[in-house]
């Protein structure tokens, strides 16, 4: 689900986890999981942007995310360990936008401000896409594996 929505609302979570009996505690836990997923995502983006700068990359146009790059492998291994899901192209686009946002902010020296990442978060939260209907099924994993 994270490949589609980095910022799911509690209503969205309830829609896609229909087999879960929601209460305040469970809703909070699921929201916390997504927060942790985002934290890992943003840590990787900053790490790879800084590494590119250290490697001498000077232009944002040289920053890309493809299925054969190390950043993609790190994210896929974290969110899709068993490689059960095909990562949507849109996720690669969003990852590239995120990487470029970090790169531009660091090059511009914005990282001296303690709240420098907030501007990036505001951009990325608008890039969530529709989660496919199949994810609403309690048998989602089995259905996806048999496609």
Automatic annotation (TrEMBL):
It holds the Pfam family HPD. Keywords: DNA-binding, Homeobox, Nucleus, Transcription, Transcription regulation. One of its GO terms (biological process) is retina morphogenesis in camera-type eye. This is Prospero domain-containing protein. Residues 1-145 form the Prospero domain. One of its GO terms (cellular component) is nucleus. PROSITE patterns: HOMEO_PROSPERO. It comes from the Eukaryota. The lineage of its organism: Eukaryota, Metazoa, Chordata, Craniata, Vertebrata.
